[in-house]
UniProtKB/TrEMBL annotation:
It comes from Parvularcula dongshanensis. Keywords: Coiled coil, Membrane, Transmembrane, Transmembrane helix. This is Multidrug efflux pump subunit AcrA (Membrane-fusion protein). The chain crosses the membrane at residues 21-43. Residues 156-183 form a coiled coil.
Length: 337
């Protein structure tokens, strides 16, 4: 007699019960699903990534948003631009008038006076030099005293010092006149006026005060990613990056970048050696060679982004176990892609 019948033979009702076909089918399906899950976790490849938020910026400081400053002190006389206007190199932005409308005229008259004084000093020096040569000849012939010869030499040196002082005064005056004459602030290069900081006409500004914010044209875009300090040791220049830009529809699969939709490739340029105040490290990402980024009208400077730095390829089971245990990505000494 079978072992089962020996033990439940006295329980006729239990012996007559058979498992429902549905239960058997569910059990088989669960067993098959577990087996497939084990195979999936064991053999499915997964690309490890480290992600972080970012912002669109530029690498060259000359391409960043910059201030346009007043060159001289005075009151605003006229604005040539408004917010959002595009300008070319050399286009006027604002004209600043000095509080004293006769300042430039007075400076010009003072320069003329200084020029006349310099010419007089030159004439006096030539006369002193002639007198010195005549006194030298008389002294050598024994017709003039040594004291007269030395006094003539001293007068020549005094005249040279006076001439040097007059020329220095003229240079200072020309510098002041040049500064006061340059009262029209112009665009340094082609770009866009983002915001006018100065007030209306008759507003007083000092030399160096910002009068407008300017965004140069043709700036090269990069993305500043901020990566967790736990993973930054695995990020190296040349690593591939998948970027998702703000407002751009995308479906991202971090482990399978080949099936991601709406993301754009990039490459790591550099990693900051020191952390930000929040403990993250800044990673600069440049545009990749495969697919160009959206145009500047879609992805502007200052727009938010998110990036996934592609690391090594592992199995899905290992990646799931790593995530559950909060381990860093697997380190590899191989070359970066």
């Amino acid at each position: 007699m079978p072992f089962r019948d020996q033990h439940i033979g006295h329980f006729q009702t239990l012996a007559s019960i058979r498992p429902p076909r549905l239960i058997v089918a569910v059990a088989l399906m669960l067993t098959l699903a577990v087996a497939m899950l084990v195979l999936l976790l064991t053999f499915t490849p997964w690309v490890q990534t480290t992600s972080g938020p970012g912002v669109v910026s530029t690498r060259d400081p000359n391409d960043r948003v910059q201030e346009i400053n007043a060159l001289v002190s005075g009151r605003i006389d006229r604005w040539y631009v408004r917010d959002g206007d595009r300008v070319a190199a050399g286009d006027p932005i604002v004209r600043i008038a000095d509080n004293d409308p006769q300042l430039i005229e007075r400076l010009s008259r003072e320069r003329e006076q200084l020029t006349a004084g310099r010419d007089a000093a030159r004439a006096a020096l030539r006369t002193a030099q002639i007198d010195l040569e005549r006194t030298r000849g008389l002294f050598e012939d024994g017709l003039a005293a040594r004291r007269d010869f030395e006094a003539a030499a001293i007068r020549v040196e005094d005249m040279r010092a006076s001439l040097a002082a007059a020329e220095a005064s003229i240079e200072r005056q020309e510098t002041e006149l040049s500064r006061q004459s340059v009262q029209t602030v112009r665009a340094p290069r082609e770009g866009t006026i983002l915001r006018i900081n100065g007030g209306a006409s008759a507003t007083y500004v000092s030399a160096g005060d910002p009068v407008a914010m300017f965004q140069p044209e043709g700036a090269e875009r990069v993305v500043e990613l901020y990566v967790d300090g736990r993973d930054v040791a695995l990020v190296a220049p040349g690593r591939r990056v998948m970027l998702e830009f703000e407002g751009w529809p995308a479906v991202q699969f971090s482990g399978w970048p080949s099936v991601a939709v709406g993301t754009f490739p990039g490459r790591v340029l550099s990693i900051d050696p020191t952390a930000q105040p929040d403990g993250r490290f800044r990673v600069l990402v440049a545009e990749g060679d495969e697919t160009p980024w959206p145009g500047p009208e879609f992805v502007r400077f200052g727009a938010s982004a998110r990036g996934w730095v592609l690391l090594d390829e592992v199995r899905l089971g290992y990646e799931l176990w790593r995530q559950l245990n909060n381990f860093p990505p697997q380190y590899s000494t191989g070359t970066t892609s």
